[in-house]
Amino acid sequence: MSEASIYEIHDPRFRQMIVTSAALDELYSGCRWAEGPVWFNDANQLLWSDIPNQRMLRWTPESGVSVYRQPSNFTNGHTRDRQGRLISCEHGPRRVTRTEVDGSITVLADRFEGARLNSPNDVVVKSDGTIWFTDPTYGIMSDYEGYLAEPEQPTRNVYRLDPTTGEIAAVVTDFTQPNGLAFSPDETILYVADSAASHDESAPRQIRAFDVVDGKRLANGRVFCLINNGIPDGIRTDVNGSLWSSAADGVHCFDPTGKLIGKIRVPQTVANLTFGGPQRNRLFIAATRSVYSVYVAVSGAQVP
Predict the structure, then answer these.
(1) For the chain, what percent of residues have pLDDT higher than 90?
(2) Which one, of 301, 296, 288, 302, lies nearest residue 50 by Cα?
(3) Separation of alpha carbons 22 and 19, rounded Å
(4) 254: which strand partners?
(5) Where do the SMP-30/Gluconolactonase/LRE-like region domain residues begin and end (predicted)?
(6) Contact 159/168 with Cβ under 8 angstroms?
(7) How many angstroms separate the first and last alpha carbons of the chain?
(8) pLDDT single digits (tens) 218-256
(9) Can you say how many angstroms the Cα of residue 118 is from the centroid of all Cα atoms in its chain?
(10) What's the burial of 187, exposed, middle or buried (CB within 10 Å: 0-12/13-18/19+)?
(11) What values do phi and psi take at 3, rounded to 5?
(12) If we measure between CA atoms, which residue out of 153, 204, 154 comes closest to residue 177?
């Protein structure tokens, strides 16, 4: 595709962050709702969720697409911990799990203060090994992406989990529907998407920013940016501190002050994204039925 067909330049800086000759490649089509892409550089593979189809898929440049896990417990978002293990949010059992090196599954969290979680959605791991995840109600609103149920938690929270002690704390409790989350490169800020407008047009469609205090608490919550087409779902930051968000018309890029500087247009509604490839300069995009990729001129901040 030409530059004019996939890029919107809102600020000259965005032109330095993209490869204008790079095409938007469709790697796979056939999902019902593609979500949660995560890159494994050591295995040269991308994993992602196809939530309603109860499966996780794997793509490699050499072999294309295969089924990684089925059934998947309606798995949604994924990340890796500092040891390289897969951390997953499962709508079905309403839990956060870790896939061990031998393939076995360890349950990290499924309850808070004695009650079941709603449906863990997305997850990131901080450099100290703590796991931060969101818990909206999408997975219990119907039987399409989980199992219909009444929420047991009074609020939809953002949690911090210490996997060494099992301690779990609600670090934000005033979200309508918390969704994707990402740390700034220096981990002083946590960005969290509120995607409640997915089911209520009058609800928030914003990304909020919080200062990380002592590595454990969040303070000074404020609106970082608004999504002007669709809702924010999955988000990522690059090494320069810019934030890349999913949206209805593609991927939106914001500078560290929250100014929209550009868009990469995608033919389908984008749910999530991640940086990958050997240089972390390939953007993998989960968009409804398909997974796309496009090379960019910056690298993602997330490690490993």
Answers:
(1) 95
(2) 288
(3) 5
(4) 243, 260
(5) 33-288
(6) yes
(7) 31
(8) 999 999 999 999 999 999 999 999 999 999 999 999 999
(9) 17
(10) middle
(11) -55, -45
(12) 204
Residues of the chain with pLDDT under 70: 1-4
Contact status, residue 261 vs residue 14, Cβ threshold 8 Å: yes
Structure tokens belonging to residue 300: 């993602």
Integer Cα distance of 50 and 74 in angstroms: 8
Place of tokens 């991927």: 251
The model's pLDDT over 65-115, given as tens digits with 9 standing for 90+, comes to: 999 999 999 999 999 999 999 999 999 999 999 999 999 999 999 999 999
Q: How far apart are CA 268 and CA 10, in angstroms?
A: 21
Element (H, E) at 284: strand 282-287
Structure tokens at 191: 């960005």
Fill in the amino acid letter for 79.
T
Residue 270 gets which letter from DSSP?
Answer: -
198-205 — which CB contacts under 8 Å span 24+ positions? Answer: 198/138, 198/231, 199/141, 203/176, 203/177, 204/176, 205/230, 205/231, 205/232
Can you tell me whether residue 121 is helix, strand or coil?
coil
pTM of the model: 0.97
Task: Please check whether residue 145 is in contact with residue 177, taking contact to mean a CB–CB distance below 8 angstroms.
Answer: no
The first and second tokens of residue 297, run together, are: 């001129």
